[in-house]
Amino acid sequence: MAFRSFAQLPQELRDQIWQYAVWEEEGRVVEMNQNIKPPVGQDHWSCEYTSAAKIPGLLHACHDSREAALERWELRFAFLDEPLPHPPKVFFDFDTDTLYFGTKFSRIVMFVDGVEIDDYGRLCRLALDINAQYFPLTWDYSGVVSFFGVKFSELEHVVCVERFRPKYWDSGMANDVCPLTETRLSNAIQSTANSGTGNSTGSWLSYRTVSRRSRWVEKVRREYEAIGWKCPEFSIVLDTQRPVASHGHWTHLSRILGVS
To answer: 5 in a domain, yes or no?
Structure first.
């Protein structure tokens, strides 16, 4: 039922209501897109960072709600490279939102080079499509740790999204591997980033696949400890709704995900 007398309330009370509504909103998963455009009469390529993540409705409800919402969600991630910079186009809350680099943006190294240090240095929650993510071939585990430790000094949680490689589909297992919808994957990432624990999304996975990823996480954690830096929490989310087996191993994910 609509409250039609809201506009007649005192301004101070309306402002308090909007403030309460703003901070009741849950954090979001904001997947980054990198739009590279061919040059038009220029020698340099143009690039802009965008996201298809849903913009919080309070930014559009009315003038007062937008003023309150802008105290939480900021327009961030401007592309600064000259001579064709682009203004920020992504609303983001550094305290509760998770920035996700999926298959649409696999080179996080390029992202860091193109935005202000305040845009990546304040990130607390980060999600990476671990199969699609590209790092220089010359980097070992210490190189990855040095990159994250220096560039993302406020990082608290890293969610590794495990997607299944095409070989599973090629081997006739298409009926057994069903990727999560975009909404369910975002929900799994967000709940994992908030809880600080590994999240199976109700799936099963072969012991071999998950243990390999767990070993990767453990090596990264040891490198953090060797350098003396505080290691962020690491978790794994599976982009699948159905079980997968290999070599006869059927082990529930929660029993082997010791990476929280």
So the answer is: no
Q: Name the domain count of the chain.
A: 1
Helices 207-227 and 141-151 pack at an angle, to 10 degrees, of: 60
Quick check: 115 and 80 in contact, CB under 8 A? yes
Q: 78-102: b or e for each residue (b if 16 or more CB lie within 10 Å)?
A: bbeeeeeebebbbbbbbebbbbbbb
Closest-CA residue to 186 (of 99, 80, 95):
99
* Cβ contacts of 50 within 8 Å, gap of 6 or more: 32, 33, 35, 89, 90
184 touches 201 (CB < 8 A): yes
CA distance linking residue 122 with residue 133, whole number of Å: 21
Identify whether 108 is part of a domain.
no
Please state the pTM of the whole predicted model: 0.75
Task: Judge contact between 69 and 77, C-beta under 8 A.
Answer: no
* Tens-place pLDDT, residues 140-177: 677 778 888 888 889 998 887 776 554 444 444 444 44
Confidence category of residue 221, pLDDT binned at 50, 70, 90: confident
The whole-number average pLDDT for the span 216-244 is 75
Residue-wise pLDDT tens digits, 115-145: 888 888 899 998 888 766 666 655 667 777 8
- Above 90 in pLDDT, residue 73? yes
- 23 is a domain residue: no
Residue whose C-alpha is closest to residue 38's, from 84, 92, 3, 77 = 84
Residue 86 in domain? no
Q: Is 100 helix (H, G, I), strand (E, B) or coil?
A: strand
The residue range of the domain holding 232 is 124-260
Computed over its alpha carbons, how large is the radius of gyration of the chain?
21
Mean pLDDT score, 236-260: 42
